[in-house]
User: Fold this.
Amino acid sequence: MSAMTVPNLAIGSDHHPMPLLGFGTAASPPPEPLLLKQTVLDAIKLGYRHFDTSPRYLTEEPLGEALAEAVSLGLVGSRSELFVTSKLWCADAHGGLVVPAIQRSLKNLKLEYLDLYLIHWPVSSKPGKYKFPIEEDDFLPMDYEAVWSEMEECKRLGLAKCIGVSNFSCKKLQHILSIATIPPSVNQVEMSPVWQQRKLKELCKSKGIVLTAYSVLGSRGAFWGTPKIMESDVLKEIADAKGKTVAQVSMRWAYEEGVSMVVKSFTKERLEENLKIFDWSLTEEEMHRISTEIPQCRIVGGEVYISKKGPIKSLDEMWDGEN
Assistant:
């Protein structure tokens, strides 16, 4: 089949184009490097151009190899046709460590710049210790001012076209906005029909920040995953009526909510299926059913970033009561 074209959203003051459907590389356990590399090449042939990684996922190097091969094979005309996101890990979320961290990610990815660089979690940990899960004694308060200032420096140096955050509550996002010279372009968070993030979505919309949804399909198979989306009777009924899959209905819902999304799959058939969400729509009644009939429940609580010995001691402190 010929490659499909994924619509773009403009992010940041420079209106940098971001394909609103991204290929996610977070998996538990991490994907085997050769499998990831081949899947990325398959994804590019299908039409994916947006790829999301992090040092935490252990996928930067194989992703970088795949992207370099895609350019050399002519699957894309140039690097500029690709959109690559990586993230600042907790151990590097300190003054003096942010620029070296993005430089390390760029080296792993064999790239000269990232399209988007995000603070992965609003948590810092002891510098130089990259073990996961983070040990409970190793959590430290984040110096938001110092870290965000250096995120801005990454953009000024041309190492990142855009900068943003991930897993930030409304309160934490507003704090970044209060100290920022360059505001965040994106907040990447859990968002799906079972956790619709209405308050955060409205805040982001009012501030010109793009919301990127992860776990749109529930991340089944990962330690943070849930079957609640794929087993939702409401979504199943809508999918059956439209001749679509539950996954496609969930992704189409996110698209109609005006957000971008990062979705993970390592099978070619599923990758192709996930692209087929742009040439049909949900009715007002179907959107209303999704917004009113599905019980809401946060799935990714971030428990592995909470410690009685650290700065964030409870789910309530992580999400500032936005549960």
